[in-house]
Every structure is written in C-alpha cells, then in structure tokens.
Design brief:
The protein has 11 helices and 9 strands. By secondary structure, it is of the alpha/beta class. It has one domain: Metal-dependent hydrolases (TIM Barrel, Alpha-Beta Barrel), CATH 3.20.20.140. Helix 3 packs parallel to helix 5 and helix 7 packs parallel to helix 8. It is globular, with a radius of gyration of 19 Å. It starts with 20 loop residues before the first strand and ends in a 9-residue tail after the last helix.
C-alpha cells in the first residue's frame, strides 16, 4: 500500500481541524436484543460534550431497529409502516435526526414505503436494508421494487454488509449480506447511491473484501457504491483498513474518489453506546483515532480528507444544505 505524504505524529495538531461538525451516517433507535433506545436517548447521547471539547455531532442518519430485529416467527418486530412512522414522527421537529426508512423485502411491500415517501418526501433521506435480519440474500429479486423507489425518489440506500469468516479468519463467502451480492443489486440501478454499511464487517479479511468490492465498482463504473466506517477497525487505533481504503480511493484510476467514504458508528449499540460513553469514551476516542491515523498517513491532505469523511461526503450524498443549523 502506497501512503501519501506520511509525516511525523509530532505535527499532529497543525493544520488539522479537531473542531469540526460531524455527520454520523449509521445510527439507530429502537429495540435491539436486550436494549432499547428512544430518540430522546439518542439525542441525549449526541448532545453530550465530547471529552476533546471540540468536535460536535451535527446530524445523524438514523433508522429504527424495531423494523430490523426479528420478532415472532423470525418476522420483523414491527412492520414497515408502523415502525417507520414511529420514527418519522419523532424526526419532524428534530433536525439533528435524518431518517432512513427500513425496508422489509420478503415481509413488507414497496407500496408501503412509497406511501411514506409521498407523505414525508423531504423528511425521508434514504432507505435502509438489513439482509442478515431478513435472512434474504442482498441480490434477491425482492429487493428490486424498493430499489426502483430509491431511483424514482432519488434516495440513497444503506445496506448492512457483512463477509462471513470462520474462526481462522478464512472466507465463507455468499453470506446473505455479502458486499458482492449488494454490488450485484446496485449494478441494476447505477444511478442509485448504495452504501456498504460496515464496509464488510467481520474482521480484517472481511473489510479487505469490502474494500475490493468498493474499488472494483469504481474502476468498472457500473454502480455508485459507497462505504461507511461503522465498526471498521474500532479496536485498533492505527485504523489500518481505513487508511487502506482512503489510499486506494485517492489513487483510483478514475481519480480521487474519497467522496465515497462516510463516517458511521452504529451508535448507540455496543461499544458506542451510553454505557461505553461513561466507562471508556469509545465513541470520542474512535473519532480521534481515525483523525490521527489520517493525519499520520496523509500529511497535507489530512484536513481535506477529514472534512470529507466526517461531514462533507454525507452532506453531498444527501444533496442537503445544513447551514441553517449551528
């Protein structure tokens, strides 16, 4: 891997914006296993002052776990209409909350989502899919009616992506959320932005596979794939796979394509939840470590890259002006 403008960490603070606005592109509310998070919980979490005293969360792209987690007979706990409406009503007067409606191919109907898009055309900013919870391969034809809606209403789509590996970190490809399956669906709608949530999820080789799929789509020019960084290198301060994907996006044969990378966390789940905030400050430390790793590896390009990954790429993707909110 070729890294650009590598500099000494001693120059860490120079020309680097650690007082920036952040858009977290992967956030949830609702029920997940033994936890439940209201939109108030989420807002309280993000309204806290970070320990670094500088960064601020400007917006969060949020979806309702009630529509994702399985209930009886492995069906979603709440259906597309009631679960999404529950969230949308909370978002109407909360500009920090940017809703992505959860789609349930195999259980729901694209007509349900279109009803919501017609009722909340400006509020809804994207569609969310979780193939693993649906137990439905991401290249299944039942996703296509929803993707046609995304194309019709000009909305990006966020897919949970995950590469399955065994205990020895060997590939077990063709899991239902495999990035290649998502890519296959995205190729049918080349103008629809499709985000690989978690950039492959599941460890080093999984993230490498996610990176390969992302870069392949750019080189071929046959799909508009993006990736978010939720759980990517979360426990490694050096952020090797984040650095790898940034480097490969910078050196794409199609030019600088770092616009395809978004910061995301999966908050408030796991290490990025309320308990972790009190005990380990995992959320803030993850942000600081990503920024430091970019600074250490990309020198003069660091400030530009940090601004893009943490804020401007999501803003541009949503085709949204956020200047009205401080």
């Amino acid at each position: 891997m070729q890294i650009h403008n590598t500099i000494s960490p001693m120059n860490y603070s120079s020309n680097l914006n650690f007082k920036g606005k952040i858009i977290d592109s992967h956030v949830h509310c609702g029920k997940w296993i033994n936890d439940s998070f209201s939109t108030k919980n989420v807002l309280d979490f993000f309204n806290r002052k970070f320990n670094n005293g500088k960064d601020s969360i400007d917006r969060v792209l949020i979806s309702n776990l009630d529509c994702i987690i399985n209930g009886k007979n492995k069906a979603p706990f709440m259906d597309e209409l009631s679960g999404n409406l529950k969230l949308l009503k909370k978002c109407v007067n909360n500009p920090k909350l940017v809703p992505f409606v959860v789609c349930q191919p195999g259980y729901g109907s694209a007509e349900n989502i279109e009803l919501l898009l017609k009722k909340y055309p400006d509020l809804i900013k994207g569609l969310k899919f979780h193939p693993a919870c649906l137990d439905l391969p991401a290249n299944d034809a039942r996703y296509l009616p929803y993707m046609r809606l995304a194309e019709k209403y000009n909305k990006p789509c966020l897919f949970h992506s995950e590469v399955i590996t065994d205990k020895n970190n060997n590939f077990i490809r063709n899991g239902v959320s495999d990035p290649e399956y998502i890519y296959e669906t995205a190729r049918k709608f080349p103008n629809v932005p499709v985000i690989l949530g978690h950039m492959g999820l599941g460890g080093a080789k999984a993230h490498e596979a996610g990176i390969d799929t992302l870069i392949k789509s750019i080189e071929r020019g046959d799909a508009k794939l993006y990736a978010d960084l939720a759980w990517v290198d979360w426990d490694n301060p050096a952020k090797p796979h984040i650095i790898e994907v940034v480097d490969k996006l910078l050196r794409s044969s199609k030019g600088d394509k770092t616009e395809r990378l978004l910061f995301g966390s999966d908050a408030p789940l796991g290490e990025f939840g309320e308990k972790a905030l009190k005990q380990q400050n995992s959320y803030e430390n993850n942000i600081k470590n990503i920024k430091q790793a970019i600074r250490d590896n990309f020198g003069d390009d660091a400030s530009k890259l940090i601004s893009r990954i943490f804020y401007r790429n999501s803003k541009k993707l949503l085709n949204q002006s956020f200047e009205k909110m401080a």
